[in-house]
Amino acid sequence: MKICSYVHPISTFTPCTGLGRHINNMVLGLDQKAEVSQNLLVARKWIKKEGKLSERSPLHKIPTYSFPFPERIVEHSWKIMGLPYMDNWVDKSVDWVYCPAQTYLPFKKKKTAVTIHDIEAFETNLPWSNTKAHRHFRRKWSVWMGKVIKHTDLIFTVSEFTKTRMVKLLNAPAKKIKVVGNGVNTEIFTNVKSSPSRYNFPYVLVIGGLRERKGAPTILKIAKQLEIAKSDLKIVVVGQHHESYLSKAATLKNINVLGMESDKVLADLLNNAFGFLFLSYYEGFGIPVLEAMAAGVPVISSNAASLPEVVGEAGITVDPEAASQVSAQLLSWLKNPAQRKEWIDKGHQQIKKYTWNNCVDNLLTAFKS
Question: pTM for this structure?
């Protein structure tokens, strides 16, 4: 089977977000299958003199097709007008053109498959759904999502939750949507050799940054409550942050804020963490909860969107605004290490369900069906 994978190289550069993890692992997984011959399709600006992507991308060894148009402009044209058709920029023998990210692929003579990770744009009951920014976001997605549903041969997504929402909110045909899931890089996060912690205090880790969607208001309340309880437990937050929350965090002595970090640093941070918080209001999946479980860290997650599906019975799920409940649970673990250990053991069992190899197999099964 010959597959051409369309990617945004900048999304694959490490350190990357959950989207970048999905792209890298799915595309590299395809490349390791004996039955698959794969090329990448990228804008020419990303190609170095030797004809490959930058080594900042784990995909840099995969052969590439390229097109001369500016990436941002051509994708805008695809989404607005469904043009230009891209058949001339890939080999005629290609069976599938596949995009592991969210876009619309205009091809006349090729089968296409696109991955939709979430449809937050179309949700109307989120705390920010009626803001001007979110209404603009919804209008932009409305322009091209209909094209994806109508013209794309296969639509992949990462959770049953997102599939259900696509069917309900967008009237997408369920038969066209295939859930491929996400995995966890256990070789990175499991059995990490214990290195000394960079901190001389116990901490819970938050991945995703101080942003509204990621539950920043609740994180700040938890920090304040731990401070009032005179607990030594602090909060370390990794990721991209919104300035307004950074200024509020600066007033609290028990929050440490970091930026984007490499997988090695994340593994070290998780390995030394007392607990993991993921109080997001909306996720199409939520890879960080699996990475925490793989590292042997007990998880407290929000009960919103796809997270109950991913966490299962292996973590504690709470309302994303339940700061007092989270604080009480953390303090309880400090007093009862055996209880904390039970959640660690449950997490180790849960991650066995989520491997990238299974995700790639799901992808290939759909291509062959």
Answer: 0.94
